Amino acid sequence: MVNLQELASERSLAWIKVSITVVACWFLWREWRSPHQFSERAKKRFAGALAVLSLAAFFQFSHYSSPGYFHRWDVFHYYVGSKYAPELGYKKLYACTAVADAETGDAEHVAQRRMRVLEDDSVSLAGAALSTAATCKQRFSAGRWAEFRSDIAWFRRVSGGGEWWELMQLDHGFNASPVWAATGHAISNRVTPSIAHFRWLAAIDVALMGGCLLLLWWAFGWRIAALATVFWGSQAPAELYWTGGAFLRQDWLFACVLGVALLRKRYFFGAGAALAYAALVRAFPVLLFSGLLVLMLRELVITRRLSIRYRRLIAGAVTCAALLIPWGASVRGFRAYDEFVDHIGMHAQTPITNHMSLRTLFSASPNIRLVELQDARQLDRIEPWIRARRARLDEYRVAYWLTAAALLGGFAYTVWRLRTAWLAVCLGMLPILSVTDPSCYYYSLWLLAAVASRARRSLEMAALGLAATSQIVALRFRPPDERYYAMAAAYVIFSVVLVGMFARRTPCLGDRDPR
Questions:
Q1: Would you state the torsion angle of the CA atoms of residues 118, 123, 126, 128, taken in this order, to the nearest 10 degrees?
Q2: How far apart are CA 483 and CA 10, in angstroms?
Q3: How far apart are CA 467 and CA 471, in angstroms?
Q4: Average pLDDT over residues 205-218
Q5: What pTM, to 2 d.p., does this model score?
Q6: Which of 167, 339, 420, 431 could lock onto 287 through a cystine, CB 3.0 to 4.6 A?
Q7: Helix, strand or coil for residue 122?
Q8: Contact at 8 Å (CB) between 451 and 444?
């Protein structure tokens, strides 16, 4: 009898996912060699079976890395960060946690543990926060402080209260936008901490993930939906480990997929609103508008006017922003946006091992390895690695920006020729990795490569090959900086090739925007 727990081990899951992609590629190759070999019914059954198996592998055959499908690390940041956003802002999560922790636990031990200082992204001993405890407590009313202290004690208890809990205080804070924070605040203040409640909150993401696949089926058909499912379930960067069992972490992805689906169905107002929502909750998806801006510019140059579809798209985006920007200010006022920009800007300047982008490639080198540059004598043990990465990027900054400009230019040229709105958004992954530095778990967005195969059938095998490559990289490289550097290289190359495939000639899509 198959032992599902053994199947759910990291290495076993990786090989299972590689095997799924290999089988899928074999079937696609057989189909290409003999187009009439399989009936439509047989294709649907085979694709459905692989999709179900991919989902089972993605969800680790129900043997989750986060016990009980409750991601303690992520939920701590997003539940506490949003619930107490009025008091904590973006700077005080760890400092006030240390104060509350000291009042409900071992104050002497808390004073000696390490803590991320979110004002400058450095690391210090938590004793510095305890010395100014009154300043932290003044941010809260008496009732809110008692509730905060109780919540922190609960999270410490369910997180084991040991090294893992202490490592959580070295992360990079609460990073959600004010719009997401306002939504999270409205929900978290109505949900008391309990494992059962957080499982229900985690189910929101599962529903959103299922919604993504249903949207692709609705807009692009069963084939694209099945391919996207296999890719999503088989890729390595955005595995369940990172955000599975978390609190509302897939809303941005659902909005991106919704935007592409609505563009395909020609609901331009809704598409603009959906893409604007994604940009307002996660910032970097704003670059998905870059291809649409190229199309609008082309239309203005040629016709001196914007067609009704693009006016509707702009109206949808503006309407969404007009509604959600004040909503985002409802918790801390409009200063929350300045604080968010400052926090994210500082965060972006700190190299992190699981970042993946063009910038990653220019900041890394064979001589900058985490296993060699860690220094246990320092409070921030990876500070030597961070300094080396920063110095490397400074040295090659001009080359980096020239390369990014060349990639953006190639992207604009390709989109200018394509004249297809939904495809322009799918290709927008190249601008994202060229000018931003996303963490690995945001690479679930690359399922849009499967959507692009609607216009280039050869992309089906290429997308599956990328998923398999990412798993092989995960098996080959254990140190996280080397693993995600190699994955970044694979995704950058793939994204460049993806855009290049559409630059060769204009595909006949049948749903192209008019000249």
A1: -80
A2: 14
A3: 7
A4: 96
A5: 0.94
A6: 431
A7: strand
A8: no
Give the 3-state secondary structure of residue 121.
coil
**H/E segment holding residue 124:** strand 122-125
Q: 390 burial class (0-12, 13-18, 19+ CB within 10 angstroms)?
A: middle
Residue 155 in contact with residue 76, Cβ under 8 Å? yes
pLDDT computed for residue 508 by the predictor: 46
Q: What CA–CA distances, in Å, run from 348 to 144, 174, 431, 440? A: 32, 14, 16, 14
* Nearest one of 164, 156, 154, 153 to 194, comparing CA atoms: 154
State both tokens at 89: 């802002």
Residue 510 three-state SS: coil
CA distance 417 to 507: 10
Query: For the segment 163-194, what is each residue's pLDDT rounded down to a tens digit?
Result: 899 999 999 999 999 999 999 999 999 999 99
Distances (CA, A) of 230 to 196, 250, 251: 30, 18, 20
For 326, other C-beta atoms within 10 Å of its C-beta total 12
Residues in contact with 42: Cβ distance below 8 Å, sequence separation at least 6, in sequence order: none
Backbone angles phi, psi at 367, to 5 degrees: -90, -10
Distance CA 279, CA 283 (A): 5
What separation in angstroms does the CA of 171 have from each of 4, 230, 232?
Answer: 32, 31, 26
* pLDDT exceeds cutoff 80 at 157: yes
